[in-house]
């Protein structure tokens, strides 16, 4: 069934973080390097071997797979207890992160138009908080929601986190647009409660195609196209 876009003035835009506002690879590479250094001092594998293995495993399993580091410890023959240290190192990496080109302009532009902005992100809360801090983007958002704080069952695609975001942004679903990159998680829940969805074709899921219910209402390749869509509705 083809969804019909209802043209209502946009009052709120809810962004996803990873691969929407910045390139997640930049964070992952630096954080994996730190993990590799830490583990190489505790086993017979070299830092470079561990780093490459992490990159390969990530490529194969994608960011949707939750046990990458557990598997790594097993594969390296290391004590599973090290997982808490590894997660700490990964979550607290100091990386020189930058927003995608045009992101800052877009966020400023939307703020000037008095559009309220939300950020909704899945994943380890400590890691996501660290990324937000490294990017220095708190100032742009009226609300930032770390979905896992509500419990894993309320992470995207569950609609609950969007309901909370809408409440914080004082917007009805039809007045909001949700921008994401990952069709597994970013659109189906938002669509269920009537939020319009836009997919940025970027990052590790760029070429992934799922059934219609998982896909966004619209697709764009960059922030210029997104800005035009919002302007057209306003
Ligand atoms: Mg994402």
Using brief descriptors, characterize the structure shown.
alpha/beta; DNA polymerase, domain 1; binds magnesium ion; 6-stranded parallel beta sheet; about 230 residues; Rossmann fold; elongated
Level-2 CATH architecture of the largest domain: 3-Layer(aba) Sandwich
Number of separate helices: 9
Radius of gyration equals: 19 Å
* Fraction of residues in H or I helices: 40-55%
Indicate the overall shape. elongated
Query: Class of the largest domain, according to the CATH hierarchy?
Result: Alpha Beta
The main pleated sheet reads as: 6 strands, parallel
> Helix/strand/pairing class, anyone?
alpha/beta
- Looking across the biggest beta sheet, what order are the strands in? 3-2-1-4-5-6
Along the chain, the helix and strand elements come as: EHHHHHEHEHEHEEH
- Ligand list: magnesium ion
Proportion of beta-strand residues:
5-15%
Mean pLDDT: 95
